[in-house]
Design goal:
CATH architecture of chain A: 3-Layer(aba) Sandwich
Distance between the termini of chain B: 14 Å
Largest interface: A-B, 35 and 33 residues
Helix content of chain A: 25-40%
CATH class of chain B: Alpha Beta
Number of domains of chain B: 1
Helix content of chain B: 40-55%
Order of helices and strands of chain A: HEEEHHEEEEE
Radius of gyration of chain B: 13 Å
Oligomer: heterodimer
CATH architecture of chain B: 3-Layer(aba) Sandwich
Radius of gyration of chain A: 16 Å
Distance between the termini of chain A: 43 Å
Number of strands of chain A: 8
Strand content of chain B: 15-25%
Structural class of chain A: alpha+beta
Shape of chain B: globular
Strand order of the largest sheet of chain B: 2-1-3-4-5
CATH class of chain A: Alpha Beta
CATH topology of chain B: Rossmann fold
CATH superfamily of chain A: CheC-like
CATH topology of chain A: Chemotaxis protein chec
């Protein structure tokens, strides 16, 4: 059941990654199989660990410099800080989707890694989703373990019990 | 000039909030986690409002909210949560502790400004 769970989760992560960058006015699209990419190495990698009753792991977001520059809303941008905030916001979105599937995720705080050849290990259970922007690459993957008997619902199974991105509620 | 504290571990978000409020009539001061936020609230007696993230190192935003609201001098201080979290249980916990609002990131600067203006208008 782990591979089915992983497929569902990968789809959720990829969909939310597209929406996250769209909210920051950067259009990214899924890379085509065999598509060649620029040789520019990933600039930074944001990593956010999490736990839940049914699963635990980390969400990883790696990008080249252009997508970070293009989306950063600050006047004096820090790439390191911004990749941490992006992976934080991405996991927030995934968390809200997981709530509708009966899974409550507890995130830790994000960290940034800088490296020349950052890439996921190409194992059967670890598939990275690669997106291309006008200039640059965004790569996202979730490395996680599920409890043996856990089945992640492919669709929502309960009413959304979370506010949406950008929503405000005054008391 | 009314003083607003932004508590967030992301310098980018703090800058974003500073840009949104700083162009208006607000003097923005910063803290990078709940512990520093609580210390700043205790130190500054002229804060008009606080904007606070939830997931932060050392002390998270909900813990900070609950801690500072226990002090009678902070009962009327408006605190708005600004976070990636949207879970209703957390929203209700913040409301019960005395928060005045909850905004889910990414936020619209004009919406945040309107909320803070409303809360700081006597």
């Amino acid at each position: 059941m782990t591979s089915t769970n992983k497929t569902t989760l990968d789809r959720l992560v990829a969909e939310n990654c597209l929406k996250l960058f769209a909210d920051y006015k950067l259009e990214i699209r899924a890379g085509e199989p065999g598509e060649s990419h620029a040789v520019e190495p990933f600039l930074l990698c944001g990593i956010l660990g999490f736990t839940s009753k049914q699963m635990r792991g980390a969400l990883v977001l790696a990008t080249t410099s252009e997508p970070l520059d293009r989306t950063n809303p600050a006047a004096n941008p820090s790439h390191r800080d911004w990749i941490c905030e992006l992976v934080n916001q991405l996991l927030g979105r995934v968390k809200n989707q997981m709530l509708t599937r009966g899974v409550e995720i507890f995130p830790s705080t994000p960290i940034a890694l800088r490296g020349v050849h950052l890439s996921p290990m190409l194992q059967q259970r670890l598939v990275a989703e690669l997106f291309t922007a006008e200039r640059g690459i965004v790569c996202v993957w979730m490395d996680c373990e599920f409890d043996e008997d856990f089945v992640l619902a492919e669709q929502s199974i309960c009413e959304a019990s979370a506010m949406s991105e950008g929503e405000a509620l005054m008391f | 000039m009314k003083k607003v504290l932004i508590v967030d571990d992301s310098a980018t978000v703090r800058q974003q909030v500073r840009a949104a409020l700083g162009m208006a009539e607000f003097d923005v001061v910063e803290a990078s986690d709940g512990t520093e936020g609580a210390e700043t609230i205790n130190r500054l007696t002229d804060l008009a409002a606080v904007i606070c993230d939830v997931n932060m190192p050392r002390m998270n935003g909900l813990e900070m909210l609950e801690t500072v609201k226990k002090d009678p001098k902070n009962v009327l201080l408006p605190i708005v949560m600004l976070t990636t979290e949207g879970q209703h249980e957390l929203v209700q916990r913040a409301k019960a502790a005395g928060a005045k609002g909850w905004i889910v990131k990414p936020f619209k600067p004009e919406l945040l400004l309107a909320a803070i203006r409303k809360l700081t208008t006597v």
